Amino acid sequence: MKSINEFALHILQSESLESKLEPPPKELTDTLLEVDIPKLPNREKKISFSDVKSKIPRLEHLHIPENRAIAMHHFANHELQAIELFAWALLKFQDIPTENRLDLFKTLKEEQNHLKLYLARIRELGLDFGDRPLNQIFWKFTPLMYSFPKFSAILSISLEGANLDFSLLYTHVFEKFKDDVSSKIMRKIFQDELKHVKRGVKVLKSIESGNNDWEKFLSLLEFPFTPRRAKGFYFFPHTRKKVCLDNDFIENLSLYRDEFSKRKKETIPGELLQWGIYSG
Q1: Contact 280, 237 (CB under 8 A)
Q2: Fewest 10 Å CB contacts: which of 95, 101, 203, 269?
């Protein structure tokens, strides 16, 4: 392969996990590629999508190594979907500015590294990727990501934004349960997610309109996707400050509820308050 688009197509067409994790050759060109973009990625049986639900263990149960492996398997599933979706975006949005193309490419490579970290750790903890059901939740939103700003709002600002909360939370929880290896992995992913969300915010702020960031953001979302997807179980507002979102956006996201939320109010477990993890 000689181009970024050929590399992206390789990721979507490859069935094996190993092929999807192959690093790109050096000095790829960014030439146009006429291609029918797959609606779903190819995957071998072990890592194929499943309709079986797999719940993530409760925080207080993460003192058990198997439960930590299950939690990281849950996040690894999201990382693989992110790798594939950034490949999808490179093929879908071939006419966007070079700067944005390179941001997509850099993010894809960083997501590959994240998945490698997760795979190594869950195997150390006695689990292999694909031993648990793998959902396709991120892929279900592709019909709503038909423009690059919409892709950025949904994947970068919302789904990766929510992972700011998850990765920071699990950094501290793993640390509290004396799993420094897992904690360091989550810390690394948190630091990278700051860069990824910033790239999405850059796209949001480039939209020329009289609306503020929150109104721009809402204009890019379509039913059934709502801003509730843009934050984790527990929301850490200061992380959104780090990615250059303004106070109005952060306040609106913090207060956002919708009729589909199972929890109308985020209750903070006593453990998080006691451990000093939750910052309000």
Answers
A1: yes
A2: 95
Q: How far is CA 65 from CA 116, 124, 127, 132, 182, in A?
A: 19, 10, 10, 15, 10
Q: Which two tokens stand for residue 186?
A: 């989550």
Which residues are registered as beta bridge partners of 3?
29
Count the residues in the chain: 280
| Cα 164 from Cα 235, distance rounded (Å) | 9
Residue with tokens 């993890």: 277
What pLDDT does residue 269 have? 54
For residues 56 and 67, is the Cβ–Cβ distance under 8 A?
Answer: no
**pTM of the full predicted structure?**
0.92
Segment 171-197 shows an average pLDDT of 96
The whole-number pLDDT of residue 280 equals 41
Q: Are 90 and 108 in contact (CB under 8 A)?
A: yes
Q: What is the pLDDT of residues 51-88, one digit of tens each?
A: 998 889 999 999 999 999 999 999 999 999 999 999 99
Which uninterrupted H or E stretch holds 174?
helix 160-176
> In which element (H, E) is residue 70 found?
helix 65-92
Number of H helices, E strands in the chain: 11, 0
- Cα Rg of the chain (Å, integer): 18
Q: What is the DSSP string of 81-97?
A: HHHHHHHHHHHH-TTS-
* Amino acid 261: pLDDT: 53
Q: How many angstroms separate the CA atoms of 276 and 114, rounded?
A: 27
